Structure formats: structure tokens, C-alpha cells
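As a warm-up, study this chain.
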Amino acid sequence: MDNWILVVDDDAINLKMASKMLVTSGFRASCVKSGQAALDFLKNNKPNLILLDIHMPEMDGFETLRLLKADKITSDIPVIFLTADDNQSVEIKGLQCGALDFVKKPFVPEILLQRVRRTIELDQLKRDLSSEVEKQTRIAVERQRRLERMSMQIVQTLSGAIDAKDKYTNGHSTRVAEYSREIAKRFGKSEEDQENIYMLGLLHDVGKIGIPDDIINKTSRLTDEEYAIIKTHTKIGSEILKNITEMPDIVMGARWHHERYDGKGYPDGLAGGAIPEVARIIAVADTYDAMTSRRSYRSTLPQSVVRAEIEKCSGNQFDPAFAAIMLDMIDEDTEYIMREGGKE
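Now compare it with the structure written out below.
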């Protein structure tokens, strides 16, 4: 379709001259005699360009352009001012209002047509560029989403492999991740933070990959030497995850989920706020799941026993704020389904 130009001028002779020049050069032209008439016309039409006279009765070009720019439907239509003024301040004001160019009256056909063509070409280039940016942004966003989905699937597969080493804790990492995410949510964390801690929860025991199976699955009491080996899973986990440079915080859950609020935990003996917040959350979730899961030497502990232990350890083993949230979750779980096999 031919490019469509709206000419706005209160002088009939100027309208006739401009229209003839445009149509002769292959443009489609529409003409109106006032700013209000232009606004009415544009309610149902959208030309490629507006040639707008500055000096018109009732509503001048500046006011007309202001109203055009205030309406999202017409704000992106390029405007060239028509003026007989030879005044630099008028041009500055016009450009500040959003005009893209000026054409002096009386019209010089070559100049008018050249500026019309240039303005339309630049506007089309801008639109094409904007469209391409939007397209590439959509592609990039979808690619990022695919990578995130793939990353999560890899993490879930890895956490499943970790849990598979211990026949008595199937699904442990997933449950810890879910409890941790819920605690973070109730604490007021953003959705992004919630998903981040979910991933850290899935990977908190990744270091157990480096622990011999016979120690992990031992049914009798561990010796001091064996317990010391078990404790190394926090350091092993952080060594594995530190290579993921795109997520430097990913080591926090793996390394510090066995730290205690009173400073008596391991591997680094951190205390209070020195323990990363995500690790303090995972610590509560991890202990809760340990007590509500079956072990080789016992069945799932009664909910009342679990609650009492969480309450007793608040302030020494656990951050009191996160222990309180876990106690609320326990109190709301009247059917005791928040445990291994509880939802089956």
C-alpha cells in the first residue's frame, strides 16, 4: 500500500499544493483544515506521516502535537511541522514537542518530498529495528527459559542420584527443597529467591556423592571415624558446586546447612547471622525431614516429638525466626502429611 500522508493546514491553497505534490509522487494524501479535525480524523485512521501547520486558529500545531503525543494510539506517528516562520526558537520548541523535521512555506517540491521520504524511511527503519529487537528478545527469553528448565532437570536428576545412595532417605532432597521454599515464602522472600533456595535445597547433600555407600547405608552406630567422614560431605559439596561460576551462591546450602546458630556446627563453626540465610533455612528443613523420615533404626517420629525438638533447638541449633515458621507449618499440618510418604 502507498504511504499515506495527512496534511493539516487552515489554508486551502497550501492543502491543495501539498496534496498535489504528494499524490503526483506516488503518495496517498488526506487533508484537513484544523487541529481538531486532525484529531477527529485520527480516531479511525492511522497515516504514515502527518504534515502539521503550526499557525492555525483555535488550536495551533504545538497544542495539536501535544495531544497527539499524549494518546498512545497516535503518539508514534511521525510529524513534520509546516511553517512560514524563520525563527530558531520556533524550531527548537517544535523539536522539543516531538516534531521530527520542518518544511518552510511556501513549499519547494523537492525539499518537501525529500523530507517526507526521509522521515518515512527513518520511521520504518525504527519500527523494523524495534520489531527485530522484540523478536530477538523473545528468542533470548525462550532460550533462557529452556536453559533454566534444562538446568533444573539436571539438578533434579543429580539430587535423585544423591538420594539413591541412601535407600532409607528416598526423596529427601526434594522434600528439603520444598520445605525450604515454603519457609522462604512465609518469610517474605521474592519468587526468584524462593526458586533459588529450592535449587540450593535440592543440592544441599550433593557432597554425599563422595561418601562411601557402606558408611551412608550402615544400619548400626557409626564409629567416630565414620562420622568424621560423613561430615566431610559439606566440604565435598562446596568443592563440587564452586565450579558453577554463574551461580556463586549455590555453594551456601551444601557447605553450611550443618552449621548451628550457637556456633557449634560444622564445617566452619559459624554462628548467628554469619551463617548465610539460605543455609539457616535449609538447616531447619533438613532436620525436620530427617525426623519425619524412616531410618534403618527407627520409623517416622511422632509429630509431637518432632515439634518439641524443633522448639527446643530454636535459638541454639536453629535461627529462631525460621524455627518459628517451621513450627507454624507443623501446627497447620493437622493430618501430618508433611513427611515422607505423608501425601501418598
